[in-house]
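Lecture notes, continued. The same structure-token format from the folding unit now serves as the input rather than the output. Read the line below as a description of shape only.
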């Protein structure tokens, strides 16, 4: 699986709207519906917020056009600062390995997470 692009829109106060394009560059579809998660990571790679994503990897066919996942995060209660937006597909089996994306930023900031973008949450007015 690969994320060719992501768009982060923070124009709505207290919300981050994301568009995440996900494609299957492999040779077979993924037949299970493992949960996708979106996270905000601190600069040291610790997850400070994790939520289930609406997007699903099941049904992403190899060679097909990327699916765009539309996600929205409520960040109204988070402290101002710099955060890393990341995504992961966790293995639901105990001690199972998560899915790794074929992107350079896979595991760059935290093990098991694909870093998508760095954002700055401003002070509330």
């Amino acid at each position: 699986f690969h994320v060719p692009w992501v768009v982060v829109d923070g124009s709505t106060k207290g919300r981050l709207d994301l568009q995440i394009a996900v494609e299957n560059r492999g040779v077979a579809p993924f037949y299970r519906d493992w949960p996708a998660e979106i996270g905000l990571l601190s600069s040291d790679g610790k997850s400070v917020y994790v939520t289930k994503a609406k997007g699903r990897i099941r049904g992403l066919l190899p060679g097909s056009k990327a699916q765009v996942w539309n996600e929205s995060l409520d960040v109204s209660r988070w402290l101002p600062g710099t955060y890393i937006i990341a995504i992961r597909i966790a293995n639901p089996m105990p001690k199972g390995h998560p899915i790794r994306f074929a992107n350079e930023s896979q595991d760059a900031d935290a093990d098991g997470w694909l870093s998508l973008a760095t954002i700055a949450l401003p002070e509330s007015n």
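Point for the exam: The beta strands are 6-9, 15-22, 36-41, 47-52, 67-74, 81-89, 114-121.
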